[in-house]
Amino acid sequence: MHRFMSIQKTIAHSFNEIKSILLQFDDDMYQKELKIISNGTIGQHFRHIIEFYFCFIEAQQNGCVCYDERKRNYLWETSVIESLNIINQLNDNFLQLDLTKKIKLKQNYYNDSFLIESTNQRELMYCFDHSIHHFAILKIALTTTFPTVKIPTNFGIASSTLHFQKQEK
């Protein structure tokens, strides 16, 4: 029988990976425009990841999440300390969630929007999977621009890829 890690523990692990990287940065490095990611910054990518999680937590109040309409907090892309603080706050919120609670997901497409049923667990899984995509981009930027930054071993590798690699051994 397989033992499954809860999504909250998976996200806590992911947040620890983020924090291990952020603790190696100062605000200037965090805001540096990098050609390899279309003049984006490390901070912009981490802000984007954080905002999806934050948007989900805010949606607990009204029962509907819309990642397209999330508030942008530019402090999270310019301040390492502020990013670390919100990550800690988010993690505390995740540990208290009822994963079976139903929530609506609003998605905007062009000039239309759709509303579908979801659960807290499914939306947390979405936020996590979305973050892995950005971790992969960040890993490219970090290894080429900041080669002395220590990056966690499996940072930016999808869970399905890690599972496949284990099976291949």
From TrEMBL:
Domain of life of the organism encoding this protein: Bacteria
PANTHER family, per the entry: DINB-LIKE DOMAIN-CONTAINING PROTEIN (PTHR39473:SF1), PTHR39473
Protein name (Swiss-Prot/TrEMBL): DinB family protein
Species per Swiss-Prot/TrEMBL record: Algoriella xinjiangensis
Lineage: Bacteria, Pseudomonadati, Bacteroidota, Flavobacteriia, Flavobacteriales
